[in-house]
Amino acid sequence: MPHAEDRAPFLMSALYAPTLKEDPAEAEVASHRLLLRAGMIRKAAAGIYTFLPLGWRALRKVERIVREEMDGIGSQEILMPIVQPAELWRESGRWDVYGPELARLQDRQGRDFCLGPTHEEIVTATIRNEVRSYRELPLSLYQIATKFRDEVRPRFGLLRGREFIMKDAYSFHATPESLQEHYDAMAGAYGRICDRLGLTWRPVEAESGQIGGSVTTEFMALADNGEAALVYCACGWAANVEAAGTVVPRDPATTEPRPLEKVHTPQIRTIAELAEAFGISEHDTVKTMAARDEAGRLVFFCVPGDRELNPVKAERVVPGITLLDEAEFATYAIPKGSLGPIAPPDGTLVVADISLKDEVAWGVGANENDYHFFGAMPGRDFTVDEWADLVVAQPGDGCPVCSGTLAGARGIEVSQVFQLGTKYSESMGATFMAEDGSEQHFLMGCYGVGISRSLAAVIEQHHDEGGMAWPVSVAPLEVAVLPLSLDDDTASVARDIAHALAGAGVEVVLDDRDERAGVKFADADLIGWPYQVVVGRKGLAEGVVELKHRSDGERERVAVGEVAARVTALVTAAREALS
Fold this sequence. Notes:
With 579 residues, the chain is an alpha+beta fold. The protein folds into 3 domains: 117 residues, 3-Layer(aba) Sandwich (Rossmann fold), CATH 3.40.50; 259 residues, BirA Bifunctional Protein, domain 2, CATH 3.30.930.10; 128 residues, YbaK/aminoacyl-tRNA synthetase-associated domain (YbaK protein). It has 14 helices and 32 strands. Strands 4, 8, 9, 10, 11, 12, 13, 22 and 25 form a 9-stranded mixed sheet that branches. Strands 1-29-28-30-31-32 form a 6-stranded mixed sheet, sandwiched between helices. A hairpin with a 5-residue loop joins β19 and β20. It is globular and about 95 Å long. The mean pLDDT is 94.
């Protein structure tokens, strides 16, 4: 292995970094646009990308940070196959319920396989054949590997691709206390990973989705272009709006009971049309959504007219529900635009949002085309079978844990931790011998970091109109030396500075291309080198070079003989701050 002083700088003329002058038409968000323009990724197919050298270097740095944090809490690295046998997914029960995102295939013998979007089945099958006693627990294993999820609409480059790189970890425990301890350790490691990547982030309550389990937390990188909406409170509570409990503020126009009135409402099919026609606020109407449960029973969900039903919350109240499609309204003989809780079809379950419980004058559909009721009062005119929190949380709602008011933000989910319990060990027959001699199912945890997604999240938070502005911890290279001309003196000084930096252990690139200064400046900002040392004839005549800090655009004049030490100190300090 060469000593630091023997290392040579990278040469821009030799780097495969095909930059683009124009924004690609397909790119909708900053990270996608800049990764393409800076020659770091190239599209192979929809949602599938090739990483070019600079993009791969940055990605490997994300991986290194993740590995260090995983190793630091005692998780051990393995590698599992992306192609997984269908019988394992059938054991867990997910083969038929995962949906079309699971890419299925057959081998030449007609045996079913899938491309793994996650690896709970594989790791459980591995451990159940090897770990037999509580003395071998707890056990935590992780991998960094390619996953595949056949997204119906891949978009935003690395933020929602079909093929992606992920760190997934799985832990096995004998007791709930052991599971909780490792869950907390993983959450702590995930927070440190976000910090070391230079991300501004929040831990938020979340839904477990296809993974399962009852306890889960997402780690969200805040970003205006984030696909996830979240709400948070000054008390520290935060949640994805899909999972957020909420206190809906209500200020009805009518607070006293009034007679029930049936009103002819021809051609009115929406809450907005009803409110406009009668000069009332949507806030003073009630929207009814129709669904069916697994047994085919009709379910009406009633929410304030100015709010949206949260399907995740509805599923919690009535497991297995499906909102009716157009054809099913005719099957159940109900009018799509005039639904309401008064005299619904026999056997209908009526569930209403808890915020409506004390209101005495609802404006609702009459379950008859072209008619609505005003003044409908629960308990007098109809029965609500269950009251529940049903709406999508939004800024301005009350915090469910204190008296505060919720604020809103958007975020990119970069990682998530789950307590799975025995979801997979029971279905797949994975047991161990407990201390008392009994056979028990493993308690499991699952923990994921989107490696390629995290890279994109860093760019979403660290860029400007000129390009990327990498934190040192993730930058493909840390310093660029830019000679503004290739005359002997300028080129020689630039080369000496680059070699001095490389010898000090700094990752440095020398832009030795025979290009105009403007091209070099534009590419340096586009690619986002954290520090740029500009070597020009005018400065050399005064014995100085210019040092540019990419993160804030600050520029300083540094003596030629001192610049290597100055830059090395800056890089070292930045590394330590993010280590």
